[in-house]
């Protein structure tokens, strides 16, 4: 599985190679993906906090993700 940085690098390479940076479909699906990524991060962080409950300290970064 690629990290987010590896994905961004590979995508940039493909967009440049095939001259797709301004292609309407490619920009649209990229924007959708970015929005979904943010939504999924919030959802996962919220689920972790909810499942953890009062069983211990919850890392601060999880709250930061949810509030962001």
Automatic annotation (TrEMBL):
This is Uncharacterized protein.
């Amino acid at each position: 599985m690629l990290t987010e940085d590896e994905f961004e690098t590979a995508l940039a390479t493909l967009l440049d190679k095939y001259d797709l940076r301004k292609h309407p479909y490619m920009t649209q699906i990229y924007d959708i993906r970015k929005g979904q990524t943010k939504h999924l991060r919030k959802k996962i962080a919220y689920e972790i906090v909810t499942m953890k409950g009062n069983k211990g300290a919850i890392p601060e970064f999880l709250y930061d993700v949810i509030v962001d």
